[in-house]
Design brief:
- It is a single chain.
- This protein has 1972 residues and is an alpha+beta fold.
- Helices cover 43% and strands 13% of the residues.
- The strands form 11 sheets. Strands 1, 2, 3, 4, 5 and 6 form a 6-stranded antiparallel beta sheet that branches. Strands 34-35-40-39-38-37 form a 6-stranded antiparallel beta barrel. It has a 5-stranded mixed beta sheet with strand order 18-21-11-15-22, with no helix packed on it.
- It is extended and about 165 Å long.
Length: 1972
């Protein structure tokens, strides 16, 4: 049976448990579990990190731990009983663990490894803490180390700052907010700025000396030298080197390493140096040969210098190689370092080119104890300490030091009978009082231990040597008296075996008779003659002699006159000995009572360091004198005491204060002193007001703290001794003293007067007295003293008076004192404190100090709240609220609105003040109870005051919520703040409801309330979803979800508003929408219904809710772009509101609004998801286009539309889609007019006129068209700009524009353009974004992009998509599938601009543009067999299914892909297919022959292979198959309607034979010699072919002379009479509309170098091995079938590009027989052909006229893929200049730029039989002379705006409409609107012409509309006449921009006079863009 557990509540999993039993809970090792129940070895509970899942687990797997249980029962929580540091470590490491893995994923390797080491270190420390074997101090160190590591990791990972006290985390609920702020701020400061260290140390490690001329041992001395004062700052560090230049004792690191300690900040300057002297030990001369002499001398070697300032910038671990210099003359050795510093180059030189001293130098900062902790290794392995000469900047009381430094300066010696000067060496000894040499007390420097003596260096032959060698004598204090130093002088002979001969000595005693030591300074010593060592054995002999010339009696002339002298400099650094006689006199006052007065007077002149050395003795002396002679010396003793007390205020001696405190507590014995002290102090205070000089009195008051300490201690001693006698007398004295003080404080003076300054001095020290007074007086008594003293201060002081600041500091210290902590005294002091504080805060003065005081006050209140004095605390809170709440709010507002100060230090202080005031406000509000709030609200005398208060507090709360209020990692502080805010708001909302509703409604207060609530909910620190699970759990447990609480409050308050809701519509829609976008389901459920309420009230007010809709839409875009909202929100918004409006009368319009908003959300979410991706891809662009169109067409939001135009433009530029970028920017350009209307600053555009912005846009678009090689479009814009410049007579810019236009023409002719491929892409399945889902698009591929590459790109963009392997339309299962399916195949564009493509003489460079631009329709062909398939002849049943896709916009456009608007399916019969195949082959042959004739081919191979393919296939039965299929009687009888087509097929076959014959003739002319046999074979086969066709002689219509081939230039034969291949000279053969067949002679990837190496194939599609072709599958998803470039469009065999060169192909490359039988343009691989027309579209022969119209297709040539050939000409190059028929009336198609003057044809003869239709299109032909057509002429500036289908051009005066046969049914009637034909119609026949008399309209009319759909514009200033057939009917309601592409596109011609429905696109009126 399961029993609830009592004690077993919490445990840790010891081993993983899979949980395979029923109800088992899977556990991982290390998980923590909470146990609910137990049963026979099993527990039931849950894992703490996932409390929702409960289950059972074995008890043996759990290690139980002690824990506290809160809220016992169903909702109990368990808190483990363990050290808080352990708890924090555990939870932190868990959080880090997850983030640490993410660092690896993000490739942040450095942090990953550092964190790994720190985590291991923390785990190791955690083990140490858990074991519990650490000492208390060690435990403290470990915890400090742990918390430092935790803080470091949290900072690195961007986690929260943890507030701690004594290493433990603090619970913010258990301390006051002010204290929490202080803790956070302290930790933040610690993290942010380390306090600059005042003490510095230099670490030196001597490594080696590198030199070529070593061989002797060396001594190296380092010291720090002050170059400014020319004196050493430190003692010397001494290292011995061996003969190799390395340290002699490498194992003893303390002999190589030292720390120069206690350098002050003033020592780290440029003129402080490290000086190194190097001494060699060996022979006298460095180069002397080694002789028998074993005596060694210390001789100069070299010197090195480096500035300390260089170490501040260098890397701390750098090794330095110091250059070593030697002096030129040895006598200057003593100052070599000064010469190097001064750069006196003449006095020294490098001691060797490769001599260098290798040293490691590093500056360390902080006190020495800190260094010991931080550099433990350094101190553990040993390092010697090198001290400063003298004391450090701060003298520590316990410091023991007794060092005498003696510097051997110089000597003056006589020759001593020698001919040359002496080599003098000094030996130094220290001898004690008994004359014994003190062992080990002579040190050359730190590093090496001291020796018994010291030998100076020897300067060669120098009687006036200067050594400047410093030695240290560390003699104990007790041995100082009686000791002396002896200096022995010896001559070092270089002969006589090098012995050293004594010739004299000097000595100096260390202490004088009166107890003073040898004074510091230079001493000139007497040199006493002595040649025997034995003479010095008894020192008592010579000690009686004089030692210094300064001390000689005046009568001793003998010694005074001697020239020999020796100079030394001594310096004592001792904490026990003094050189000061006055000090000794004072201490020995009893011996000389008469000197007391004098000694007390001189005390002030004694150096402070001497006084603090003997502090206790001095104080005993003073109080001794006071006790014995208080009347006589009382004032002087008091002054001396004041001097000593103030001396300890100095920073150098401040550490001696504890010494004085100890003295007072333990050693002070002056029980009677208090009377004298009080009396003197009162005497001074009474004199303050009248005294002229206040300096001394101020010194007295400055010392008042310690004076009171002595008074109180003295009184206590007296009480103890006497049992409390004279108590009343003492109290009276103190009261009188305070009365004197109050009197002097109450004096009103100007701020700068001496008395005011004295008052300030007293107030600074007064708070320190409280503690002393409490030792004798009660708390209440002391509080009264303080209150009365502070209360007597003058209140009417000027604001700028310094006394005010001091007064505040005094208050601050009072509040922080022990006195104020006591609640009893606090009641007395609080009113005084509040009064001063309020006055300062109201005047905004001394805010830093005010904040400090307030912080201290409020932190005390918090402490007391948990105690017993609850009513007292409540009263205090009441007082503070009453006095300070209002002023505190005003202060925070004032500070926050001030501009922040400039300096970093000031800014820091500014932030501190704001933060502290905020913490005070929060602490105060948190203390307030219901009663306090009631009292506060009732205290307002009027509604206005309450209103002002509410507005103020709401504004302050908004400031507190600002992200910059606290540092970003202060989440704890932010949560506390929010908790206080929501609590306060709940209290205040009642006041809002009671006082500001109904007739008392106040919009401003309510608006402020809602605004606060909204930003409260939206602040980042409350978005729990972004936190880790553990952090989220902690916050929810502590505070709950405060967003939901505030949301419920908003809803409740909204419901209370009633009809006042209308005041907040639409203003609050945006803010509330932002709240509902927060991903919290409960909050959304609460807030979304408010929108229904808003709709309802708006409907009541205005009958619609347009305002609501507009605001919702505007805000949604910006909010969702910022990353807010999700799919769940969209569904919730939709469902909640639809449910709400079900019963409303306005339900329909409501549903419409909700649907619109929901659709917008779909698009915005798609847009946001796409924008998250890295690179620009089609998905991003497509999504932006979808959104842009939605804003324009459905929402009509112009500004948003323009914004997204520019976003799309930027995307295109980034992707280098320059053409698309131009089209995109044109959308904005079209919204503007050429007017002077001013436009406001918008996006990146400055404020400018509309004309200027449009000009800028034009230029930008032209530039992008140029980069995108779309020069024809740029030309149109250049012209429009040129017109504008011309109209303003701006000829300078006009000239530039014309030059730019000319450059674009040049580029068209000179530069090559790549032909793009087009691909149809279907996106099927629900997983695609909304704008793609279940739609099909046609995409323009990138340069060189084939199907495989495109397919791969699409799969990369949609990595989860599945590529479909068939081309059939998918069924519903695919549409509804929860997946992504991509269907991709290549399609063929159908050009619109047939006129240009069919015109002879237009270069390929120009034609290529029209083949691939402004394409609306695309085609895809699929072969299939209908009926039974004839195995003998498959052509009989081979049909083609032709799919035509019509897009919503033409390509290229604002995107690389557009959606398919309409798909049409037609079937092409076998006969029609055969006709197309032969037509295409004929066209290809014509083109190749023409190219060969005009020598455009460098190589004849393509023609050879094409001829071979056609002739060979025909011989093998190619054409014969067609004869068998279609020329047999059965077929003719069964298909009587095909008679004309059969005739057409026969004509084409004859035509092919004729072309072949002519081609062979041309081939013979150009064929190289080695290919002659092949040519002969071809001729033979051709004859066979002719005979197989039954052709003996060509019919009349074929026999005409092929004169047109001779020249190749169509211009020479433009007027030739008949079409040579007309079947019968007098009649035109009925044909379908002329098609645009490019002869694309692409180069194969095979080894064949010819252009058409792949084209040796049967004219019918058969190859030599027909099965190879016929067995291929027509799958469009394969590259060979789908890519436009995988095979030539005119090659009927569609082998893949890789196999094209070889007639023998692998099986995998074989195509189906059906494919082979198709014309290239019908096959899936087909390139670019226009749509073939139905038979109904072809005109009968009699309608076309006579031979004026060329018989064959004029467009026999098209550009190679990248071929820049200027032109290529067709076989039938007879071309009349008349415009051709149009296949759809009024349809505008555009040649590049048709001629500016209308083209008049070439002669009357050539025009005599033009069709009436074409004549009616050219009414102006006779108005201008004949003119050679310019293929790049613009027709009109009057452009039809916003009509994508009007993408054609005007030509030949009015229109160049594509030639098309008219159906038989039309007879001779004209289409409506056309006019009867006139041979030369006058200009007046032009319909709709505004004016034909002036040149201007005519000239303007001849311009062409731009060849792109989006850029069809109208210039209102210059009306342009349109022909009647092209006139645009007026439309009252223009379509919105951009236009919705028309749905209907028909290829057939309507002959009833009505034009194609999509042609007359009405031009909408230009949109005005309001100020944009």
């Amino acid at each position: 049976m399961w029993i609830p557990t009592e004690n077993e509540k919490y445990g840790v999993v010891l081993a993983s448990f899979r949980g395979t039993v029923q109800h088992g809970l899977p556990l991982e090792i290390g998980d923590t579990v909470q146990i609910l129940e137990k049963c026979e070895g099993w527990y039931r509970g849950f894992i703490l990190k996932n409390p929702n899942v409960k289950g059972i687990f074995p008890s043996s797997y759990i290690h139980l731990k002690n824990a506290h249980v809160k809220n016992k029962g169903q909702f109990e929580t368990v808190i483990p009983v363990e050290d808080s540091v352990i708890t924090e470590m555990t939870s932190t490491l868990r959080d880090w663990g997850a983030m640490w893995k993410q660092l690896y994923v993000k490739n942040e390797g450095d942090l990953f490894h550092r964190l790994w080491h720190v985590m291991n270190e923390i785990l190791d420390l955690r083990r140490q803490v858990l074991v519990g074997h650490l000492t208390h101090d060690r435990m403290r160190d470990v915890k400090q180390h742990i918390t430092a590591r935790l803080d470091w990791g949290n900072e690195q990972l961007g986690l929260d700052l943890v507030p701690r006290r004594e290493f433990s985390m603090v619970d913010p609920d258990e301390i006051s907010v002010t204290e929490l702020y202080r803790l956070m701020e302290h930790r933040h400061r610690k993290k942010e700025t380390a306090a600059p260290a005042s003490t510095h140390h230099l670490f030196v490690h001597m490594k080696s000396l590198m030199s070529a001329n070593l061989g002797e041992e060396l001594e190296v001395f380092f010291h720090i030298y002050d170059g400014r004062e020319n004196r050493p700052l430190s003692e010397r560090f001494f290292v011995k080197l061996n003969k190799g230049g390395l340290p002699k004792s490498p194992e003893k690191t303390e002999r190589q390493c030292t720390l120069f300690v206690d350098l002050g900040s003033s020592d780290l300057r440029k003129d402080v140096y490290i000086v190194v002297h190097i001494i060699r030990i060996g022979r006298m001369g460095a180069g002397e040969k080694k002789n028998l002499c074993s005596v060694q001398y210390r001789r100069p070697f070299g010197c090195a210098v480096v500035s300390i300032a260089d170490l501040l910038t260098a890397d701390s671990k750098d090794d330095h190689l110091l250059k070593v210099y030697a002096c030129n003359t040895e006598s200057e050795w003593y100052q070599i370092h000064e010469n190097i510093i001064k750069k006196a180059n003449s006095r020294y030189n490098l001691s060797g080119s490769n001599t260098g001293l290798a040293v490691a130098l590093q500056l360390l900062h902080g006190d020495i104890d800190q260094l010991r902790r931080e550099y433990m290794v350094l101190f553990a392995r040993g390092v010697s300490i090198t001290r400063k000469l003298g004391f450090s900047d701060v003298i520590m009381p316990g410091e023991m030091r007794n060092d005498l430094y003696i510097t051997l300066e110089k000597g003056e010696f006589e020759k001593g009978g020698k001919s040359v000067a002496r080599n003098v060496e000094i030996t130094v000894y220290v001898l004690d009082i008994d004359g014994q040499i003190l062992k080990s007390h002579v040190a050359a420097g730190s590093g090496e231990p001291g020796g018994d003596d010291y030998h100076s260096l020897v300067l060669y032959h120098n009687n006036s040597p200067r050594w400047a060698e410093q030695i240290k004598l560390p003699i104990p204090v007790d041995m100082f008296r009686g000791s002396h130093v002896r200096f022995e002088f010896r001559h070092c002979s270089t002969k006589d075996k090098g012995e050293k001969k004594l010739f004299g000595y000097s000595f100096v005693p260390l202490m004088q008779e009166d107890g003073r030591t040898l004074p510091d300074g230079t001493h000139e010593l007497i040199i006493h003659k002595c040649e025997e060592n034995t003479s010095l054995a008894d020192c008592s002999r010579y000690l009686k002699l004089p030692f210094s010339k300064a001390n000689l009696p005046s009568n001793n002339q003998t010694l005074k006159g001697t020239k020999e002298s020796f100079w030394i400099t001594s310096f004592l650094c001792s904490t026990k000995l003094t050189q000061n006689g006055d000090m000794l006199d004072l201490l020995k006052w009893r011996a000389h009572p008469e000197r007391i007065n004098d000694s007390l007077s001189k005390l002030k002149e004694i150096d402070g360091s001497e006084i603090v050395k003997f502090l206790q003795d001095t104080l005993d002396t003073l109080f001794g004198i006071l006790d014995e002679s208080s009347q006589r010396y009382g004032l002087k003793v008091f002054d001396s005491l004041v001097h000593i007390i103030n001396l300890l205020q100095d920073s150098k001696f401040q550490h001696f204060k504890p010494v004085m405190d100890t003295y007072i507590e333990s050693h002070f014995a002056g029980a009677l002193s208090y009377r004298d002290l009080i009396k003197v102090l009162k005497w001074y205070v009474d004199r303050i007001v009248d005294a002229e000089h206040q300096d001394h009195i101020q010194q007295v008051l400055k010392a008042s703290e310690y004076i009171f300490k002595y008074i109180i201690q003295s009184r206590r001693l007296f009480s103890l001794a006497t049992g409390g006698q004279n108590e009343e007398e003492f109290r009276v004295c103190i009261h009188e003293l305070f009365m004197s003080i109050r009197f002097f404080l109450s004096q009103e003076n100007k701020g700068t007067s001496p008395v005011a300054q004295t008052q300030a001095v007293f107030l600074r020290t007064f708070p320190a007295v409280y503690g002393e007074l409490l030792k004798i007086f009660t708390v209440r008594e002391v509080a009264d003293f303080v209150r009365e003293t502070l209360g007597c201060l003058p209140t009417t002081v000027h604001a700028d008076c310094p006394l005010e600041a001091v007064k505040l500091q005094c208050i601050a210290k009072t509040v922080e004192s022990q006195l104020y902590i006591n609640p009893e005294s606090r009641c007395i002091l609080l009113p005084v404190v509040l009064r001063v504080l309020q006055a300062h805060m109201q005047e905004q003065r001394d805010l830093v100090m005010c904040a400090r005081i307030l912080t201290s006050m409020l932190s005390l209140i918090k402490k007391e709240e948990n105690g017993t004095a609850e009513p007292v605390v409540s009263k205090e809170v009441e007082l503070i609220v009453e006095s300070l709440l209002g002023v505190l709010l005003r202060t925070i507002l004032e500070i926050s609105n001030r501009p922040q100060p400039a300096g970093p230090a000031m800014r820091l202080q500014f932030q501190d003040v704001t933060g502290e005031f905020v913490a005070c406000l929060l602490a105060l509000l948190r203390q307030m109870s219901d009663r306090h709030y009631q009292q506060l609200l009732q205290a307002f005398s009027s509604k206005d005051n309450l209103r002002d208060f509410l507005l103020q507090i709401f504004t302050v709360f908004r400031i507190l919520i600002r992200p910059e209020m606290f540092p970003k990692d202060w989440t704890v502080m932010r949560l506390v703040t929010n908790n206080v805010i929501i609590t306060t708001v709940l209290y205040l909302s009642d006041a809002l409801r009671k006082n500001f509703l109904n007739d008392k409604f106040d919009y401003k207060v309510w608006d402020s309330y809602f605004y606060l609530s909204v930003i409260f909910i939206n602040q980042p620190c409350l978005q729990l979803e972004s936190f880790s699970p553990s952090k989220r759990k902690k916050i929810l447990e502590k505070y709950g979800d405060m967003r939901v609480m505030m949301g419920c409050e908003i809803f409740s308050m909204w419901q209370n508003l009633g009809e006042h809701k209308l005041n907040f519509i639409p203003a609050m829609i945006g803010p509330f929408l932002e709240v509902t976008l927060v991903p919290q389901p409960d909050l959304r459920n609460v807030m979304i219904p408010i929108f229904h309420d808003m709709m309802d009230w708006e409907q009541r007010r205005s009958g619609n809710f347009k305002q609501v809709e507009a605001k919702l839409i505007d805000k949604l875009d910006s909010l969702m772009s910022d990353g807010k909202g999700d799919e769940t929100y969209r569904e919730l918004f939709n469902s909640i509101l639809l449910k709400k409006i079900e019963r409303e009368t306005w339900r329909e319009s409501g549903i419409s609004l909700i649907a619109t908003v929901t659709r917008l959300m779909e698009r915005l979410l798609d847009y946001r998801d796409c924008m998250k991706l890295g690179e620009v891809d089609g998905k991003k662009i497509g999504c932006t286009v979808s959104l842009l169109n939605f804003y324009k067409t459905e929402l009509n939001k112009e500004e948003m539309y323009i914004r997204y135009i520019h976003k799309l433009y930027d995307l295109h530029l980034k992707a280098q889609n320059y053409t698309e970028a131009s089209y995109t920017l044109l959308l904005y350009d079209e919204l503007l007019e050429w007017s002077d209307r001013p436009l406001r600053e918008f996006l990146n555009y400055p404020m400018q006129s509309e004309w200027q912005r449009k000009e800028y846009l034009h230029l930008t678009i032209v530039q992008n068209f140029d980069r995108g090689k779309c020069w024809e479009n740029g030309i149109i814009l250049c012209r429009e700009l040129a017109d504008q410049y011309e109209s303003y007579y701006d000829y300078r810019n006009l000239s530039k524009m014309r030059m730019m236009e000319a450059s674009l023409y040049d580029k068209i002719m000179d530069q090559q353009r790549l032909e793009p491929e087009f691909f149809r892409v279907g996106f099927y399945g629900k997983k695609f974004p909304f704008f793609l889902r279940n739609k099909e698009f046609v995409c323009r591929g990138h340069d060189y992009e084939r199907l495989e590459a495109f397919q791969q790109r699409m799969l990369n963009e949609f990595p989860h998509a599945i590529a479909m392997q068939h081309v059939n339309q998918p069924d519903q299962t695919i549409y509804q599938a929860d997946a992504q399916y991509l269907q991709i195949y290549a399609v063929t564009p159908i050009p619109e601009s047939q006129d240009v493509l069919q015109r002879d003489g237009v270069p390929d460079n120009i034609k290529s543009f029209y083949k691939f631009n402004h394409i609306w329709r695309f085609r895809y062909d699929r072969p299939f067999h209908k009926g039974t398939k004839d195995k003998e002849n498959e052509f009989k049943s081979l049909w083609v299914e032709r799919t035509t896709l019509t897009l919503v916009q033409s390509l290229p456009g604002i995107s690389r892909w557009f959606e398919v608007d309409k798909r049409e399916l037609v079937e092409v019969s076998p006969l029609e297919n055969a006709i197309e195949v032969i037509e295409n082959k004929n066209l290809q042959l014509r083109t190749l022959i023409t190219q060969c004739q005009s020598r455009q081919m460098q190589n004849i191979n393509p023609l050879t292979m094409c001829l071979n393919g056609v002739i060979d296939a025909a011989v093998n039965g190619g054409l014969a198959r067609y004869q068998e299929a279609f020329f047999v009687k059965d077929y003719i009888m069964n298909h009587p309607e095909d008679g004309e087509k059969i005739g057409r097929l026969r004509e084409l076959m004859f035509e092919q034979a004729h072309i072949l014959e002519y081609g062979l003739a041309v081939h013979e002319k150009f064929v190289p010699q080695d290919m002659r046999p092949l040519h002969k074979k071809l001729v033979d086969q051709f004859h066979l072919m002719k005979s197989s066709l039954g052709i003996q002689e060509f019919p009349a219509y074929v026999r005409a002379s092929p004169v047109h081939f001779t020249n190749g230039s169509p211009r020479t034969c433009r007027n030739s009479v008949p079409n040579i291949i007309s079947p019968d000279g007098g009649r035109g053969v009925a044909r379908r509309r002329p098609l645009s067949y490019p002869a694309v002679n692409r180069y194969s990837s095979s080894s064949l170098s010819s252009q058409a190496s792949n084209e040796v194939s049967n004219i019918t599609g058969q190859s030599e091995s027909s099965d190879e072709v016929f067995n291929m599958q027509p799958s469009p998803s394969t590259s060979s079938l789908s890519s436009n470039h995988s095979a030539s469009p005119n090659v009927t065999s569609s082998a893949p590009s890789s196999a094209r060169g070889s007639p023998q192909m692998a099986e995998k490359h074989k195509h189906s027989r059906e494919n082979a039988c198709l014309s290239p343009r019908e096959r899936p691989v087909s390139a670019i052909f226009p749509n073939p027309l139905d038979p109904a579209q072809r005109a009968p022969a009699h309608q076309i006229g006579d031979t004026t119209l060329p018989r064959s297709d004029p467009n026999l040539s098209a550009p190679d893929k990248v071929r820049p050939t200027p032109s290529s000409w067709s076989l039938d190059s007879v071309k009349v200049g008349a415009p051709s028929f149009s296949d759809s009336v009024g349809k505008l198609l555009c040649p590049p730029v048709p001629p500016r003057p209308p083209y008049s044809g070439s002669s009357a003869k050539s025009m005599r039989s033009q069709s009436p239709v074409s004549m009616s299109r050219s009414p102006q032909k006779t108005t201008v002379p004949p003119f050679t057509p310019s293929p790049t002429e613009c027709q009109s500036t009057s452009l039809v705006s916003n009509s994508p289908v009007l993408s054609g051009s005007y030509s030949s005066g009015i229109s160049s409409l594509s030639r098309c046969s008219v159906s038989e049914a039309s007879g001779t009637e004209l289409p409506a609107g056309d006019h009867p034909s006139h041979p030369l119609p006058p200009p007046t026949t032009l319909p709709n012409s505004v004016s034909s008399s002036s040149d201007e309209p005519i000239r303007r009319e001849n311009k062409t509309p731009p060849p792109y759909s989006v850029y069809e514009r109208n210039n209102p200033r210059r009306p342009v006449p349109l022909p009647h057939s092209l006139s645009i009917p007026p439309q009252t309601d223009p379509p919105a921009l951009p236009p919705k592409p028309h749905q209907l596109r028909t290829g057939s011609m309507k002959l009833d006079g009505t034009s194609d429905p999509r042609v007359p696109r009405p031009r909408p009126l230009p949109r005005k863009v309001s100020q944009l």
